[in-house]
Amino acid sequence: MRIGAVICECNPFHSGHRALMEAARRECDLLIAVMSGDFCQRGIPAVFSKEDRTRDVLSCADAVIELPVFAATASSDRFARGAVRLVDALGCVTDLYFGSESGDLAALQKEAEASRQADPRMQQVLRQKVAEGLSYPAAQAAAMEEILGIATCRNAPNDLLAVSYLCALSDIHSRVTPHAIPRISTDSASSLREKLQQDPAANQSHPQRVPVFLDDFSQVLLGALLANRDYTDFSDVTPDLSDRFCNNLGYYRTITGFLARCKTKEVTWTRLSRCLLHILLGIRKDAVTAYFTAGPQYARVLGYRKESARLISLLADSARIPVILRVADGERALPEEALCSYHLDLSASLLYDHIEAAKRKDTDTEINAYKKKVLVLP
């Protein structure tokens, strides 16, 4: 039996993601989606909650498993490593599907093999290209071409992420078979988010829900910034960035305004946004190091199709980590070292739900992570 997996970030109802899931669905007997929760790798909140997006994903997948916040909000290499190791730890996944501009698995595997050689010159050239004004993906592609002689498209972020997935599979000697699915040409998730922010009436996916954007967290982040005058303990924050945040704090009004003020050509907007998100959520370097050293410690199921309940039973039997169906079960089933990640997932979800409820002007509904139930669709 073929059991496939896809990795979704913040916008699984985006047409490119849906096409990927539909392609995987056609080739597999059962399909699992590993999805970021309420905060994403770009250093931003998801536009809609993980519960809403889980419902979307279950139109193609049989089950949705949450990628823990430590991995979901990490840099692309760590994001890929965390997601791939979680897929592998499920024990029953035979195939991993990911989008790719090129769709050329052999070429991507060649790039992955070259990347794993860790030529020290790569980082030097990468920093130089970024300083010259290239975006990080373009600089990465330019460095790979200059040092390793491998020509790649400079505007192919999905190919670069695919290489990270392949490196992660090789690093753990996984038996999961990778598949590169050609990505259809469509608007980017960022452009769709911008359209929705400019025109809320454009919300066709969840007309009953209120979209959430980065600046909705501005006052919460300000409180976190004022509570700390040295940010170097937070993940991804260097001493230089910590000083930049401190020096510009008096001009803080909104997150996007603060990002624009702190932005330099050496540091991408996404990198800065991710640093601020780590401060907002309290994600510290030592906790991140511990998480990636230990590897995945649980698989929390966000939803599944009732007709695919056999998959949940299969996961319970095959997974090398606890499979969590009810929030309270995590408290009982997980060891102490896993609870740091688990509690972060819950607190991040609570923060998102409070902000989303405030935007809806909902003052009556109780917000309680422990009362959330796994979504089961017919």
CATH fold-level topology of the largest domain: Rossmann fold
Number of helices: 17
- CATH class type of the largest domain: Alpha Beta
What is the N-to-C succession of helices and strands? EHEHEHHEHHHHEHHHHHHEHEHHE
Low-confidence stretches: none
Number of strands: 8
End-to-end span in angstroms?
22 Å
Count structural domains.
3
Which overall shape is indicated by the principal axes computed on the Cα atoms? globular
What brief labels describe this structure?
single chain, 378 residues, alpha/beta, Rossmann fold, 3 domains, eight-stranded mixed β-sheet, 50% helix, globular
Report a brief summary of the structure:
The chain is of the alpha/beta class. It is 50% helix and 11% strand. It folds into 3 domains: 216 residues, 3-Layer(aba) Sandwich (Rossmann fold), CATH 3.40.50; 41 residues; 75 residues, no CATH class.
Could you describe the 3D structure shown?
- With 378 residues, this protein is of the alpha/beta class.
- The protein has three domains: 3-102 and 158-190 and 295-377, Rossmann fold, CATH 3.40.50; 115-155; 213-287, no CATH class.
- The protein is built from 17 helices and eight strands.
- The chain has helices at 15-27, 50-57, 69-72, 76-89, 105-115, 120-131, 136-148, 157-171, 189-198, 218-226, 239-247, 255-262, 269-281, 285-294, 309-318, 327-333, 336-359, and strands at residues 3-8, 30-36, 63-67, 95-100, 177-182, 299-305, 323-324, 375-377.
- Strands 1, 2, 3, 4, 5, 6, 7 and 8 form an eight-stranded mixed sheet that branches.
- It is globular, with a radius of gyration of 20 Å.
- The model has no long low-confidence stretch (mean pLDDT 89).
